[in-house]
Structures are given as C-alpha cells and as structure tokens.
C-alpha cells in the first residue's frame, strides 16, 4: 500500500490502527494454489488464529478456502462468516470433553492429538469421521515457541505410538478419514517438509479409508528487504510429485491439505502508530509511540522483526532510534534501528503485521484495543471499531463491599 493511503487511513480512523491489504491476501492464496496445481485435489485451510476478523474470514470463504481452527470459538466465527462446516477442521489441544462434543454438534472435521481422547471419542462416536494428528518428531521452526513437531512437544500423538493408535481404531471401529502433522513455523528448508511427509505417508498406510492428508504449514515469509523465504513453488513441485505417487500406490486420489496462516496474511498487514515524544538520553534516542506490547507483542514474545518505516517523513536522512511503547514495562519494538528522521506527530508503520498481531492484542494497562481496516482497490473499509471505555467495563460486575458491616460498636466508659 502507498504511504499516502496509509496516512489517509490514520486521518479517517485514528491511531494506533491495523491496516490489511485484501489484494495481497488474494495473491498469496492464488500463489499457494498455483504451486500445487499438479495435485488433483488440493484444500487450503486458512489458520484462523493468525487473524480472526470476520471480514477476513469472509474473504477467504469467497476465495474458496476452508478454515483451520483450534478452539470452538474459532469454529463459531468461521460458521458466522458463512464457511460450511465440512470445510472447517478443528484441531484442539487439551480441551474439555464438552468442547469436543460441541464440535460434533456443529458438524466440523475433528482432528485428535491424544491417545486417551481418541479412545474415549471412538467409543462414543465411532461413526464420526476423525483425523489424527501425528507428531513426526521433526524439529522445525524459527523459534522454540513455534516449533511444535519435536519429541518434547505437547502436540500430536507420537509416530512411535502408532501401534496404540491402531489398537484403539480396531477396538472402537472408528472412522479415520484423515492424517495430519504440523512441525512448526518459519521453515526454510523444504527438505524438512519432504522428510516429515515420508513419515506421514508411512503412517497413512495403516488406514484404508483416508480422504485427505494434511501437512500443516509453517512457510516462512520475508520480514525485510532481501530476506529469504520458503520456496513454495519448489516445494509444490517436489511434494506434488511424491504425493501423486503415494495416491497411486494407495489406490485412491486423496486430498492434499495445508493450513497456512502467516503465509496468507503477514505481509498484507501494517500497524500504524503515532509518535508522541522523541526523547534523547545519554546513550539513546527514543521514539515513544501511542501503543505498546498490549497491541503488538511479537517483538517481545518471539523476538520477531517488524520493519519500521516513517510514512510521514520517508525521504529524510536516517538516524538511529529505539522505538518504544507506552506500557509500564519495557516494550521495545526496535533497538538502535536506522529510520528516517522522526518528529513528534509522525506516523510509523510496522510491516508484517497481518499475522499473530491483533489476534494477540490485549487490554493490558486498561488500554483500548485498536481499530482494524481492510483495504481493497483503493477503498478502506473499517472492519473493527476502536474500543471504548464502555467496551472495557461491559462484562465487569460491580460489587460494593461494606467493610463496616460486621464491626461491633464500642461504647466508651464514662470518665
């Protein structure tokens, strides 16, 4: 998006604010589809946790995408956005029996990653199709917090427990229609995908009624100019060939599924914040903005990089700044980063703010969560209002505690 358009958004809707480019989302969806065009049946499930705004979910539904959900609330959001239940896969981790039962009622594809839950579910619902999440014990991902397929991960049923899975399936007579894995995020080496795929193909041979194999996601996107990213075209070429070979040996054309989240929306998003104060100390020049880790926690949580541009003064000489927020703990977005000269009142844009940014925002320090805008063909659409004080207190229940209610009245003796 052009900086002039971003500044217009701040004029109309204020700051801080999240802005998403619908055309970038569309192009990413088409790019991944094209990468796997040699596969007869491809299904993309957009990972709702990356960015769960209803208008964004409706856009993915228009594109033909399904949804990857991890909570019953995300399932309900998907249904509200018009996505049909059979296009929603529900992959919870450690949830209650009640939540699983709700998913059965709603008719979505259930993905189970726990032996005990698998047995309990199969005994009660043998006719409900179930996908099984396998932990392939493959270490992958750009950060330990987002590597989920290794041996110490809480996710998935260990590939070494396959005999237990088979025993449960045979004893309950349950219907296994899919097999799934997710190794981590920010994976660069497509060899990781291909290695894990071989593990999944071997596991799939144990089930004769599969409809799909789900390879999760984890594609790395570029975070700055000249950054490296997952070569999805090369992955598509190699994995498609191997998948088609497997389908031939399996005797059935299965569906190849992915669950991209960050790949779809990360680059489409920008987060705009206004500079309140520029502060010179003995060692650093701080640019204080009207936001904090309550709105964008990834740099503090993951150590993630968000390129920062001064959209108000882009052509000025660059200086070193530390960009910080207004939260009462250290909330540093960038340390000694070269940015075009920053003045009070300038607007800074944080790039790659489409995925896991607003979705992890909070009301810490009793701050309001920001607005969201979706832009398409030059037109900005408000898709979430900025919160107000009424939003902050609407679910609170005020109780008056009378501290004097049980105190006995003392009577002084006469002198």
UniProtKB/TrEMBL annotation:
Catalytic residues identified in the record: 328
Subunit structure, as described in the record: Homodimer.
Cofactor dependency: pyridoxal 5'-phosphate
Binding-site positions, pyridoxal 5'-phosphate: 218, 356
InterPro entries (alphabetical): Ala_racemase/Decarboxylase_C (IPR009006), DAP_deCOOHase_LysA (IPR002986), De-COase2_C (IPR022643), De-COase2_N (IPR022644), Orn/DAP/Arg_de-COase (IPR000183), PLP-binding_barrel (IPR029066)
UniProt cross-references to Pfam families, sorted A to Z: Orn_Arg_deC_N, Orn_DAP_Arg_deC
Lineage summary: Bacteria, Pseudomonadati, Bacteroidota, Flavobacteriia, Flavobacteriales
Protein name: Diaminopimelate decarboxylase
Record-linked HAMAP family: LysA (MF_02120)
